[in-house]
Amino acid sequence: TGYFSYDPGFTCTGSCLSAITFIDGPKGVCLYRGYSVPDLVDQAQALEVAYLLLVGEKPSVAQLAEFRKEIQKHMLVHEKVKAMFSNFTINAHPMAIMVAVIGALSCIFSELDPLDEEHRWLACKRLIAKVPVLACWAYKTSIGQPMMYPRADLSFAENFLYMMFATPMEEYQVNPVAAKAINAFMILHMDHEQNASTSTVRIAGSSQANPYACIAAGVASLWGPAHGGANEAVIKMLEEIGVPENVPNFVADVKAKKEGVRLMGFGHRVYKNYDPRAKVMKGLVAQVLQELGIEDPLLKVAQELEKVALADDYFVQRKLYPNVDYYSGIMLRALGIPTSMFTVMFAMSRTVGWVSQWNEMVSEGQMRIGRPRQLYVGPKERKWSESKGAG
Ligand code: CMC
């Protein structure tokens, strides 16, 4: 009953109040708690930014040290959850594994009361700490290597590389270029206001469901190619294009909307200008490839594709620019990260935003259950006993 507006895709519906991330779409600005995201990438550590997003302020030296200690403590994962990994098929997509194992944390922490502040804080820290471990274990499972535990002497970004690439048989030295790149990747992906996955987490949480289950729902929502799965899809698209000479034909297919072909890594619901995260990522890719002495032929394809698209009326009129996913995959490839892990890394970073948004929603009492309406377009009331069935 009553009136409501029909807004498919929620293009003009504000669903909550939030003090976490600010985006100015037309200007291409993104701020975390008021701080410019490109500045944070330059000047902050991933864990500092996680604290900022979760708590609301930059941590003091003592607060950061305490937070780091807490996160390290919570990086341990219950052996029952670890045992789950052995049951996935060897070619299972790591995102499928992530949905399952993060959801399974809710079996371990089933007594949790979202309305209790201490419980909530604990859940946020546990998720920030454990999801990177689960992410790396999903990868290790897919290549049949032993899972590595994090090390207390490494930073958040360094630990990710260590758990991904170290084995018990050899000394592993974290490459500082790679650690810097991972730190930047994490910060760039940590939050982005009410995107599909964050809204999913909020809606799931609005019923007071277990937060680990809510984050698993967020992971599922992120997986698709229109959202976090775009970073994987971009690489597949660039590989299919193959060489810069094939770019014009591909762009012609996109413009003709041939079988729904889209330029992956382009376009955004909110940004109608160059995504500021993409600008940072583009610079970072060039720097990382140069510092590692890697030449990736896909970079040339991506650069040509961007040049051709940005000069074309189709993209200009629709205000379609590269988004954060356009260049990120080329950087991750240079670090030796397989394509199937790209979206997992997005999920691992976005977990910080998801828990911060969930905590904000619950702690501020924005707990009216999410319940969109619909326009019903089905049959009028009819009698089962009088119906003959479809035949
Ligand atoms: N390539 C070609 N045409 C596009 C693209 C694209 N990437 N994106 C939008 N358009 C066209 C679309 O066909 C439509 O044209 P028309 O007016 O002729 O029908 C117009 O632009 C508006 O598109 P829309 O689908 O209504 O836009 P949206 O706000 O609903 O979708 C989007 C946003 C990000 C899902 C979309 O731009 C897209 O599919 N991009 C490719 C996938 C991608 O890179 N996703 C990552 C987004 S950023 C990171 C994240 O959120 O995970």
From the N-terminal CA to the C-terminal CA, the straight-line distance is 35 Å
Contiguous helical run count: 17
What characteristic shape results from the CA principal axes? globular
Question: DSSP strand (E) fraction?
Answer: under 5%
Protein name: Citrate synthase
Task: Show the helix and strand layout.
Blueprint: E1 21-24, E2 29-32, E3 35-36, H1 37-43, H2 46-55, H3 61-74, H4 79-84, H5 94-108, H6 117-143, H7 156-165, H8 176-189, H9 196-205, H10 211-222, H11 230-241, H12 247-255, H13 276-292, H14 297-310, H15 313-317, H16 325-334, H17 342-363
Antiparallel strand pairs: 1-2, 2-3
Helix pairs in contact: 1-8, 2-17, 3-6, 5-6, 5-10, 6-17, 7-8, 8-13, 8-17, 9-10, 9-17, 10-17, 11-16, 13-16
Describe this structure in words.
This is Citrate synthase. The structure is a single chain. The chain is mainly α. It is 55% helix and 3% strand. The protein has 17 helices and 3 strands. The protein has helices spanning 37-43, 46-55, 61-74, 79-84, 94-108, 117-143, 156-165, 176-189, 196-205, 211-222, 230-241, 247-255, 276-292, 297-310, 313-317, 325-334, 342-363; strands at residues 21-24, 29-32, 35-36. It has a 3-stranded antiparallel sheet with strand order 1-2-3. A hairpin with a 2-residue loop joins strand 2 (29-32) and strand 3 (35-36). Helix 2 packs parallel to helix 17, helix 3 (61-74) crosses helix 6 (117-143) and helix 6 runs antiparallel to helix 17. The longest helix has 27 residues, at 117-143. The radius of gyration is 22 Å and the shape is globular. The chain starts with 20 loop residues before the first strand and ends in a 28-residue tail after the last helix. The relative contact order is 0.15. The model has no long low-confidence stretch (mean pLDDT 96). Carboxymethyl coenzyme *A binds at residues 9, 195, 226-228, 230, 254, 262-269, 318, 320, 323-325.
